[in-house]
Design brief:
- This protein folds into four domains: 2-78, SH3 type barrels (Roll); 81-100 and 114-167, no CATH class; 171-272, MgtE N-terminal fold (Alpha Horseshoe); 287-400, CBS-domain.
- The chain is 35% helix and 24% strand.
- The protein has helices at residues 4-7, 79-82, 119-125, 129-138, 169-172, 177-184, 189-196, 201-210, 213-222, 225-232, 237-245, 249-257, 261-273, 295-305, 330-335, 359-368, 393-400; strands spanning 2-3, 11-14, 19-29, 36-42, 46-50, 54-57, 61-63, 76-78, 87-90, 95-98, 101-105, 111-116, 147-149, 153-157, 162-165, 287-289, 314-318, 324-329, 373-377, 383-388.
- The strands form six sheets. Strands 2, 3, 4, 5, 6, 7 and 8 form a seven-stranded mixed beta sheet that branches. The chain has a four-stranded antiparallel beta sheet with strand order 1-11-12-13.
- InterPro entries: CBS_dom, CBS_dom_sf, Mg_transptr_MgtE_intracell_dom, MgtE_N_sf, MgtE_transporter.
- GO terms for molecular function: magnesium ion transmembrane transporter activity.
- This is CBS domain-containing protein.
Length: 401
């Protein structure tokens, strides 16, 4: 076994003592057993030679005098360009680590056996490993070797040289969707698609929901309309509307056609709202009840109908004409007796906005009255949706930072 750092930049001669240059890189084929196939030699320019021409290593590399140049083939990678110093996701530890050195086996055949992610790997490049480690051992601070075997690594993005650990479905579930989305945004759309295909539909949808809008748009354009619709059905309507709004009209209509009538109507409404000041912040994820409903009845309906909600802070009370007449928060529901009807304690002096209310006014009302959310109503006081501090955070950061 040898380390890549131990041979990189070594001089290379033919067996007739002709100087070819210095070792600049090694090339390996991407397989379960990643054999080293070629070496990159640099002098005035870089030349690729087959590793089969290598005869010995003894302070310098000796190759056959009849060595002929070659080229990089498909499914081959450079160690230095594509692995060294690249970040990988350690799913077992839920952290990002860096490749500090590469471990090579050279008997009986050359192949890449793993990577060194420890402090040793850094010291080795400066020729300080033995001396520094000896000193650290004296004060009981010796670093622990950390090595990842090649079987735990999967090259995902050859062009940009980023690598990740193999993403097994059970291990993926240990990562929060927003964390995994952040990691995947370091790759490209094709890589993200491969990872999503290893996950169950619900988990994949949650990751897509947390991706940057540009990646969401690219994925939806790649997906069939039916597959895109399945994702839409698993995420919050306002998040789905944000994605659909970026697509061309034909693609959007095709996706909507695969949804249930209820989901389609809700999304069409949100897409129409998007042309108003408040529209892009509105969510239709809210719960309504009637004045005569008891707390017991309301709590039963909440359990049955809101399992997919991200938050539920308020119950909006509607009359028989579906007009907004009151509101109560979850704290009030818990404090009152379960047989108490809502009209006895609901707040009737409502703070509400409409679709044309400027964002600044909406935020001002939320801060003034210390509200997490505001109902959005039309001229007839019909409830259209609500906005929350979460949904308007982007506007806050942009205008009040």
């Amino acid at each position: 076994m040898i380390y890549f750092s131990e041979i990189l930049h070594k001089s290379i001669y033919t067996d007739q003592n002709s100087y070819l240059g210095r070792l600049k890189d090694l090339i390996f084929v991407v397989k379960d057993r990643p054999y080293i196939t070629k070496m990159v030699v640099g002098r005035e320019k870089e030349v690729v030679y087959p590793l089969s021409s290598l005869k010995s290593i003894n302070g310098k590399l000796i190759v056959s005098s009849d060595v002929q140049s070659t080229h990089l083939d498909e499914n081959e990678l450079y160690i230095s360009k594509n692995l060294l110093d690249q970040q990988i996701i350690d799913l077992a530890e839920n952290k990002v680590v860096r490749v500090n050195d590469v471990i090579l086996q050279n008997k009986p055949e050359w192949y890449l056996s793993g990577i060194d992610i420890s402090f040793y790997g850094i010291l080795r490049w400066f020729g300080l490993e033995k001396s520094i480690v000896s000193i650290m051992k004296l004060i009981s601070l010796a670093p622990v070797p950390e090595v990842l075997s090649w079987v735990d690594i999967q090259p995902l993005e050859l062009a940009r040289g980023r690598i990740k650990l193999k993403l097994e479905q059970e291990r993926l579930k240990k990562l929060r969707p927003e964390d995994l989305a952040d990691y995947l945004e370091l790759t490209n759309t094709e890589s993200i698609k491969k990872i999503l295909n290893t996950m169950d539909q619900q988990s994949a949808a949650m990751v897509i929901k947390n991706l940057n809008i540009n990646y969401q748009t690219e994925l939806f354009n790649i997906f069939s309309s039916e597959k895109a619709a399945s994702v839409v059905s698993l995420i919050e309507p306002d998040d789905a509307a944000d994605i659909l709004f970026t697509l061309d009209k034909q693609k959007r209509l095709e996706i909507l056609s695969f949804l249930s009538i209820e989901d389609r109507l809700e999304l069409e409404q949100l897409l129409n709202f998007a042309h108003t000041p408040i529209g892009e912040h509105i969510t239709t994820e809210f719960f309504t009840a009637f004045p005569n409903d008891t707390i017991k009845e309301v709590m039963r309906e909440i359990k049955n109908k809101t399992s997919n909600f991200e938050h539920l802070n308020y119950v909006y009370v509607l009359n028989q004409n579906k007009q907004l007449v009151g509101v109560c928060n979850m704290h009030e529901l818990l404090l009152n007796d379960e047989d108490t009807p809502l009209y006895k304690f609901m707040i009737t002096n409502l703070v509400a906005i409409n679709l044309t209310t400027p964002e600044e006014i909406a935020i001002s009302k939320m801060l003034k009255y210390k509200l997490y959310g505001l109902p959005v109503i039309d001229r007839e006081k019909h409830l259209l949706g609500m906005i929350t501090l979460d949904s308007i955070t982007g506007f806050l950061l942009e205008h009040f930072s």
